[in-house]
Design brief:
The protein is mainly β and 493 residues long. The chain has helices spanning 7-28, 42-49, 91-97, 207-211, 228-231, 466-490, and strands spanning 32-41, 61-63, 67-72, 75-80, 85-89, 111-119, 124-131, 138-144, 153-159, 168-176, 180-188, 197-206, 221-226, 233-239, 247-253, 258-268, 276-277, 281-289, 294-295, 301-303, 314-317, 320-329, 332-341, 347-353, 359-367, 373-380, 389-398, 401-404, 408-411, 430-434, 437-450, 453-462.
Length: 493
Amino acid sequence: MSHRVAAPLRGCVLIVFCLALGRASIVAQAASIGVNFTGVTVADGIKLNNNNGYAPPDNVGGVGPESIVQLINGAFAVYDKSGIQQELISARQFWTEAGIDPGPGIVNLGTFNQRIIYDAPSGHWIAAGLSGEPTNNYVMLARSENSDPLSQWTAVRFLGNAGGDGKFVDYTRLGVDANGVYISTNNYTSNLPGGGLDGVSVFSLPKADLLAATPIVSNLSRFDAIDAGEYGLSIQPIVNFGPSTGHAPILGTSAALGDNVLLRADLTGTGAAGATISPGTMINVAPYIAPPLAAQPDLTRQIQTIDDRISAHAYQIGNIIYAALATKVGLNSGIKWMKIDETTNQVIQEGILSDPNFDYFQPSISANADGDIVISFNRSGFGAGGNLSIFASVGKMMGNLTTFAAPFLLKASTVNNYHYVNNRWGDYTTTVIDPLNPSVFWTFHEYALNNNAWATQITQVIVPEPEGIMLGAMAMLAVSLVAWRRRRRARPA
């Protein structure tokens, strides 16, 4: 006896099948790698700066409509989107041509701990960096004339630490939104060995003041040496390219170098002079702790992983803040990622990327409005495949939750024993969205070129677009329906 499905029910079956198949195809479709090329190397830096070498590169970058830019220790480089280099000059020359000579400090580099962002809403590039004096050094800000990074840049500066002579600011972070440009620093008594931590500072400058024909800093709001216990360490101003929310969040990790809270505060009134900062508020998260040094196949565990600070940009997309940090997982370093509701301070979702056979460290994260997330990071380990290389993982929304695919290789290193300049690594990495296509991400990372040389890598990561996912699902559905009908016809009555 044959069992037939009535037409209305058959329609329901097909709808369920389509939805199930569509969800499965989201998981099945992997990201692809597009343009992938080596950027600035330590050899470039040595040549540009006439020194004997240095580490780390503090590797950051940005992507505009037509160009890719690196602004790292020792170098400013511009490429077209196929990876062809358009310009390569020293970072000191970049700042000098923008109107501020930072001097020859920090092993002749002049400037260090730089950051760069392409601000798509305004159509300008924004850069920040620190001058290299051993004490009383300066925070420098610059903006391009337009969306072309080869256009004229104009820079301004201000004293980094107003707490008195003999102070030194370090570890720049940069954020931007519709109203302001935000910089934060860690402060020390000096840059000499033994120079102790002397608090953290946050600075707010109206964006219009930086983008003006003649940039000014007279409306700068300073929050010097604020309490790290209340506001956290290595405070990260949030990058938000959306419309104004009336406040600018800042996010820090616990000063205890391990905790189950983040610290969040808000800057308000940032479009003019006299911005204010709110008291710090705790955000409860799953525990994190400073990661161990990273391992290599030569059986050493010496590569620096910094600590559990948020070292790369944290992004706000809509009402969600995306952030990542390195943390200890078992005996190794892993990556903690978080999605935080900006309006309530509640954690929407958090998770760990890790592998018991490898260390994951130096993460950077970015996301788009569809909920796609790309996290890029370094991976190393004691055993096979443990060379100091670059990986990424892509997270896709499944209902209300993000599910990450297995990490995939962006750039392999053949070096199993990188040991250069006290094994310094990092301190920054970057993952950004292409302003012309939210399904295209770009990563800026570091890998071991040989045992005494670092190099940077710039990689285009393309995630499946929602339309492509649905077309793939419909194609799979059509094939499956044909096979199902054939089976039905072949089945005996």
